[in-house]
Amino acid sequence: MRSSILLASLASSTVSAETVLGAYIFSRHGDRTAKSTPPTELTDLGYQEIFTSGSYYRSRYVASDASRRIHGIAPDIVKLSQITASAPVDNVLQASGIGFLQGLYPPVGETLGSQTLRNSTVIQAPMNGYQLLPLQVVQNGANSEDAAWLQGATNCANAQISSNDYFRSSEYNDTLARTKEFYANMHPYVERTFAEDQTSFKNAYTIWDLLNVASIHNASVALPDDADFFQLRTLADQHEYGLAYNASEPIRAVTGSIIAAEVTDALNGTITGKGKNVLNIQFGAYAGMLSYFGLANLTAASTDFYGVPDYASSLVWELVTNATVSNTSYPTADDISVRFFFHNGTTSNISEPVEFPLFGTGRSPLPWSEFVASTAKFSIGTQAEWCSACGNSTGVCSPAALGGEGASGALGTSSSDDSSGGHKGGISKAVAGVIGAMVTLGVILGLEILFFTVGGFRLVSKKRLARNASNGSGDMSGSGVETKA
Fold it and tell me: Which positions, given as ranges, span the membrane (predicted)?
């Protein structure tokens, strides 16, 4: 996604008297090594990028002098009940999560970072008062940064069929034929990694990714000229958006549907808990972002939403109100609205998120009830919903596993005008949608079973998919589109 998206701001400005009640941040990882040379790793540059973004969001939401300080949030020493952070089981994403949280709540120094024991002994926290924040581990997107394709749809038969449909589409095949000579000319730049017959639009993203990493880190590698490099990026954007979203086949965007449900559930928890948990942060891959862009019709706000977001990009949903908020008075759902912001690349005080209207409405903020109703049209927030949408009927989708009405296909969803939030009985990352864990300097403590597993695509035949759908999820654990790369 190109930087011109930063110019597409809304005409209306944020009301200065507005109170931010809570926020949900979905962040991409920082700079990493190339996908075609796994295992991928977060680079020092990536660490710097994600730490910078975390520091920015501290200055926006957390610090005592924050520009849009969340009501009641602890400014210096983290209050763990107020924040939930999560990342998949993935080296790049988990490391990015830790780096971001370091910027969000930095070391507090010797004075605040000390504790006096009963016997009067003063204990100083290590590393100048380094704060230990929980990072829950979600299974969706596990090892995604080692996969060529990041769509979170492992075991979702219908999503895999839809993915295969893209490779049969006229859009894909026309582009594949049209760019054959172009990619042949690009082969000398990638010949150490890709065979000649592999250098085509079929591998558009991994080819561009390899050269993009080289353009940042390897001064000894020859690169295409600026025009060809831009063309490679544009083709990679087209390829990945085509795999992430299709208006006539919304199941292809199953990752975005899950993210949408998680956002609604988390923000609803802030409202029903009257501000007990106010900040939710999830680290994930670009595929989920692209899927959500399509589902939420953000492409109507800017055509730049068709592009793959850069490293450290972030989506932000804010809960806001103009009603009075105090220790004894909390707004009702009718007095609460949602603002959506996006920033392409590393966020900082000199390059801040831009507000965009959701769902093609051209309006922001949206009343909470409207946000919930619009999100409910495409979100997937319960196991029963997922099973029905994916066409799976055994394993976690068997009648015995679902029980009751869920076994016969009924979904445990709320009606579209339910303003209390999302899905009744829906799964949240903090409860049923995550493997609960504590990551402290890379140490994971504890586990909780995920209702369903989502990961990457691989190309298989429709016949095999139909067999897997009828026999259960089967062995669909492959991550990434199965290419010759």
Answer: 430-457
